Amino acid sequence: MQVDLSTTIAGVQLDSYLMNASGPKCTTWDELEIVAQSASAAVVTKSCTIEFREGNPEPRYSDLPLGSIPSMGLPNLGYKAYLEMVPKLKALGKPVVVSISGFSIEDNIEMVSAFQKSDVDLIEVNFSCPNIPGKAQVAYDFEQVECALKALTVLGDKPIGIKLAPYFDMSHFIAMANILKKFPVKFITCVNSIGNTLIIDPVTESPIIKPKGGFGGLCGDYIKPIGLANVRAFRELLTDDIQIIGVGGIKNGVDAFEYLLAGADAVQIATCFEKEGANCFERIENELAAFMANKGYKKLSDAKGKLKPL
Ligand code: RRO
């Protein structure tokens, strides 16, 4: 039985439910071209800043048995390079999602304004990079989120979404949902890595990555229950005009299905793409289709948000 995994985010048609996450292997033209040629439903860029950034000192990424811990520090080509790439990226035939991550509201206004005038399909504003020394995650400062959304949602008609940090308290889900409802935000992407986690190597007696004394963003299997809870909580608190892209620990079709039950409209893959390469999109898509077919589901909406209460 064929299962239809097509979806839409803010009116943008996606041929499947899976795409790459802003993060691994999406910084350079060559990397983005590989994503475009894979089964990823869209091409999502690495978060960009006003200027080119080298990023944090190495070692700044480590694989872990159940995931990874990056502290890349936003290495990217600078937003103008991505702006120039947009027509070429679009010519590869897939929706293009640009991720921006300014260091101030002014930075984000400059970048959102520029991409509003481009041909990108969606703009994802990253409020949750945990790995810049001395910079707090905007997503944990509700007042700042509100100020930023006020400024960023009036700059044009292209749909804007925001990439959220993981939240761990019901009061925070409620506070953030109430802010989101005040603005024409079209989607949220949750969750970013769990910031400021520490992995210690007991043999060397050192952290395993260098930046921030070893504090980095935890990714992969470790964070799947947190990602699922964030998607679920926001799905229950928000109205349907704000869609949800789930991310966190998806490495097979069953993981992707669990995010669907929690209420995700689409999902993004980070660590698994980093570890396995671009074949992961087709593999996970096939696994999801097979798992759903086995249950008799024909399309995403048959299961979307339909987590059954115990
Ligand atoms: O570049 C990074 O270190 C990074 C970013 Br921008 C982010 O949003 N999340 C993350 O775990 N790492």
Structure report:
This protein has 310 residues and is an alpha/beta fold. It has a single domain, classed as Aldolase class I (TIM Barrel, Alpha-Beta Barrel). The chain is 33% helix and 20% strand. The chain has helices at residues 29-37, 79-90, 105-116, 142-152, 170-180, 224-237, 253-262, 271-276, 279-295; strands at 7-9, 12-14, 18-20, 43-44, 61-64, 67-70, 96-100, 122-126, 160-163, 187-190, 194-198, 200-201, 206-207, 215-220, 243-247, 266-269. It has an eight-stranded parallel beta sheet with strand order 3-16-15-10-9-8-7-4. Strands 5-6-14-11 form a four-stranded antiparallel beta sheet. α5 (170-180) links the parallel β9 (160-163) and β10. The relative contact order is 0.17. The model has no long low-confidence stretch (mean pLDDT 98). Bound molecules: ligand RRO. Ligand RRO binds next to loops. Residues 47, 70-74, 101, 126, 128-131, 192-193, 217 line the site of ligand RRO.
